[in-house]
Amino acid sequence: MIYRLINGLSDAAGFSQRTGRGVFRLSLETLIVQSGLFDANWYILDNHDVRDSGMNPLHHFCAFGDREGRSPGPAFNSAAYAEAWADVASSNMGMLEHYLRIGRDLGRQAPEFSRDFLQQCDFREKIHASGLFDVQWYRDHNPDLRDPSIDVLTHVASFGAKEGRDPGPKFSSLLYSLAYSEDIAVNESALWHYLYKGRDNGFKPFAKSDYGAWAHIFDRIDAEDRDLMCASAAERGFPGIEIVHVFDALACRRASEIFESFQNQVLGRWNARIIFADDVSAADRAAVVARAANEAGISVVADLDEGFWRSLNGKHVLYIHGCVRLEPHAAYMFIERVLTASADIVYSDHDRWNDEGKRSAPRFKPVFSPELLRNGFYVGPCLLMRMTPEKSNLAKGVIEDLRLGGCDRLSDALLAAPHRSVAHIPFVSFSLFDQSPDLVRRRSSAPPLAAATPQPRVSIVIATRDRIELMRSCVDSIEQNTSYPRDRFEIVIVDNGSVSEEARAYFTGLRGRAGYKLVNDPGDFNFSRIYNRGARESGGDILILLNNDMTVIEPRWIDLIVAQCLQADVGAVGAKLLYPDDTIQHAGCNIGVAGLAAHRLVGKKAEAVEASDVTRELAAITGACLGVRRDVFELVGGLDETLRVAFNDTKFCLSCLEQGFRNIYIAKPLLYHFESKSRGLDDTKKKLDLQYRESLYTRRQFPSYFKNDPYYSPNLSVERIDELALPPRRKRPWRSASKNFRPRIMFLCSTLAVGHGVPLIIQMQARGLVKEGFDVIVAGPSSEKEFAFDGCRRIFVAAPLTAAIIAVRENVDCIIVHSPPFYSITRYLGACPIVYFSDAGEPNPELFPDREHREYVNREKRFCATAADRIFAISQAIKDESLDKNVSVMPLGNSHMANWSDALIAPRKAMREKFGWEDKYVVFNVCRFHAGERNYKGIDKYVELMEELSVSDSRARGKAVFVLAGKAHPDDVAEMKSLGLTVFPNVSEELLLELYAASDLYANFSKWEGYNLGIAQALAMGLPVIASDIPAHREFPINTTDSMRVAIEKLTEAYLSFAEGKSQRRPVIYDWEAPVSELVQIIRADMNVVSEQPAGQPPKNSEAMRDKLDEDVKRDRPERWGLARFFRGMP
């Protein structure tokens, strides 16, 4: 044993050994190097632990890797060698050593890897060498790969690229696929295409953060857009726009580009006046004056006299400062927003541009946010004001400030204006030159802290159940670290059924102490009920709901919360909370991210974001520390006790917005939060199920906010906070504003193949919409044999995210989703386009071997349905199954189907003769009968009926033939034939019609159907029908039963009637015209409603209140999206 150990170590070190016979034996390292089978680079790439360790790969292989079964390179498959030769296991050698010392001499071949594996290895090497792969980034952005034992480089080569996962921040598979969709084959991933083809052809890789690419896709204005803008402006009588542009020195030097942007305005009614800033030289002034003299509509203001100020009265004035270039749609957008939102002041998003014309640094802004404005002039150097005579002095002050590079008067005007009169455009309407400075506010606009005397009485409500160590720490921290006068706040502790002796002793010690109140609220944990009880028992004017796992950082924490609460239009107030390691736990919430709400800035160091993260309005803040005036709390009804654990704070905040209040986030860190230490994490199935149901409830209460958080730009991602939105969630207002507008509808379905019922429904609905003048797109994955969609555009897409991007870029106005996975499209869209769910129902997952996957699909569908504008069930049965209250029935028809007539008598006779059925009673069933679906389709019952009939009645014995038609594989066909059925697999429409004509009775025993198209066709062909007794079947005028005895009796009766010549075929027809006509009317009505709502604005409440407010793409194959044209000419 000792000799073997020494021998192994010396071999690994590269020494030669003398054998007992005096013959030198090559060291293992030398032997392996001479074999040529070891590839150091390949070995490093194939073994991430070696790569990470920095160890010499050859030394590692010789010392460890060979005996561990690792392959040395692409030319030797160690696993295959060990599997092929049993003597390796007992040799005390590694696989390669055994082959080189023994196997090779015995004539054994070095086992090779498969061609696919070697191609994968080559791909992996190219990825590694490309510089596009970032190990840590890939782990961070893929939670399923956080396990350090997973080789993420191999993962991206083997799976990730095919799934559409990005290798790092420098390469976006999605953007690359969109740009070059016409060049990428179906079986090629974006990353593979770039590394093997695109790079050599000069194709550009796009980072996911590539704003230039994003703007090129989503912000381009094409000829159709221009035409619609011009038409709508003319029809609506848009007023002209007066541009007052204060030129600084930089603007003077780029005057030609600025003037060109004026001349390119789609809205032709404009007039531009140039005023020089105080620091502009005489030479620059002269150059601009000379250039302006040759420009129509542009003049330089020589004197700011009273005549000039009077000329602005009654005008819509666009004030601009500095080197600003307008986008072509800018004037249109500003005027459109003034008119639609009845606004007096309008501002928009903007970005920057440089000498090369590249756009960058977008500033995506929220709806009007006074608190944010007080902490920085976020609106930018271009905004429109509707001028009136009383604003003459304001105009003078604004121009005076702008000439000095300031914005104090603009800021004052915004803060003084009624909030409803200030509107925001969620489009980039102008660009600021890269080197231009931002406007500077020379004095503070921060509101003073409340000066009320005495200071308002505050009630701090804290709930607990045992966990006294947390409670004591929290209370002691408040007592020791709070500067607010102790006689002006009370601590209300709500005990939710503590049982420990420590808790009893602690509470006993607090009873009777000044400034404390103890409230008992035993029972199940219900956060809302507990805190509502505490609020009712408290006496403060200001409530602060506080978790028990908090400690104080900032002594003035109560003062800061109270100061915000005392603003009359403020609802909930929250603050920055830190983890104990001083990273951010909470910095307010963005609604709609990940379908629900997400904390901002989580995990970042507080000091790292101190400069950019300021006190501001946000849609929601956490209930872990929530301040609110008592009157506001009572007005919105407190916390919703339906929400026992989660989202009660979110719903409370949204209720405040709905009532017209602003919710304020204080950017200063006020407390530490030891998150979920008292209740624990939501990590059990019971807790997760409750969280799911509570999320559904919350989304249903305020669907508009989950589609459009007013304080989170629709241009920012709902997948990852503050990344670019793919796609943006905003409405192009010119789309539906003109009489020239032709509504565009997109149907989405996972299959459009013949043999499936849903594509047939789409065919009928699309046909009706085309007839009514709609522009129709039919989208979904490619199928071998598809239905024809005459007059429609066909787009191939497989993932919901990609479908959402296409819908936005193609200016789709309404999406009608007919099947998973496309129901998930609502995760990525805002209020426009409208989304309808057509629900054909889903069978019970228990009927299938892939139960868990089907359960997930059903949950996702139900979750996403909360954001659908309408849900249509295809039958009453589906409506009855739905848990959503807002479902209406959009019935199907069968008038499109072939129906029985005398013209089919001859084909029926010929068909029966062809198959020897002249004297037979033909029972027919149509359904898919793959192995995974036979159970739910009731094939076993159909076979049982055949078998029982043969022994139940002598009159029918031997007279019936049971026929089965539908989609299936060869092994399915063989099995069905072995059971005695006559099988017609994968039939054409023509043959299927002949089979219906040749049949005498239709029988189907599905355990579930949403709507049975086979029965609908049978009725159209005048056949009697026997079917299982399920809700969908009961809607037809047929015999339904789950009793085999009754089924046999009904079948025998039908046969005897046939044998006696008494049976007659009477078609039953349901017309399509009425449901399709209803769909058309609904779409038009809903589009009118949407067109009246300003995009990017919060919803409106009463007159008294102001405005307020995966995996999928990973499996997508972008075959022919038609979007590549949007990248042509991109800088």
UniProtKB/TrEMBL annotation:
Bias (Basic and acidic residues): 1103-1114
Say if the entry is tagged with keyword Transferase: yes
Q: Name one GO molecular function term.
A: transferase activity
Q: Which residues form the Glycosyltransferase 2-like domain?
A: 459-580
The UniProt keywords, alphabetically, are: Transferase
> Could you confirm whether the keyword Cell membrane appears in this record?
no
**Chain residue ranges for the region called Disordered:** 1091-1114
InterPro entries in the cross-refs: Glyco_trans_2-like (IPR001173), Nucleotide-diphossugar_trans (IPR029044)
**Top-rank taxon:** Bacteria
Protein name listed in UniProt? Glycosyltransferase
Q: Which species is the source of this protein?
A: Methylocystis heyeri
